[in-house]
Design a protein that fits this description.
The chain is mostly helical and 126 residues long. The chain is rod-shaped and about 70 Å long. The longest helix is centred in the middle third of the chain and has 29 residues, at 34-62. Helices cover 79% and strands 0% of the residues. It is built from six helices and no strands.
């Protein structure tokens, strides 16, 4: 039981865990089944943390500039797309940037679909 309490409190973090324990003590919350109450509170906190992390991730992605988005996509293709040769980012990022993100991503998606059949992915991307 102590291990379960420790896990629940760990999920909540020290500040929130202490608040919950004080509420239980002062207001008599969860007295019928204290362990179930702690687990439920830990579950609520975990869900709130996941939502907050997702919102922060969305904010970070929204702040990415176009060059970063294109560069990340090229790096991913070089690593995972099974291309005959690697795309040379310095040679294509400028040209792709001028086209805009949507059209650049369409070109890079086409490159991914054609994969190893493209002899020179850098030229293809230009």
């Amino acid at each position: 039981k102590i291990c379960e309490v420790a896990k629940a409190l760990d999920v909540m973090g020290p500040r929130r865990g202490l608040q919950v324990l004080r509420q239980m003590q002062e207001q008599g919350l969860g007295l019928a089944d204290p362990m179930a109450y702690l687990k439920a509170m830990a579950h609520r906190v975990a869900i709130a943390n996941v939502k907050q992390e997702k919102e922060e991730d969305d904010d970070e992605e929204g702040g990415e500039d176009d060059v970063t988005k294109i560069s990340k996509r090229i790096a991913w293709l070089n690593q995972f797309a099974g291309l005959a040769k690697k795309v040379r980012p310095r040679e294509v990022v400028g040209a792709l940037y001028c086209l805009g993100v949507k059209q650049s991503m369409d070109i890079l998606r086409s490159l991914q679909e054609q994969g190893s059949s493209v002899a020179d992915p850098t030229w293809f991307s230009k």
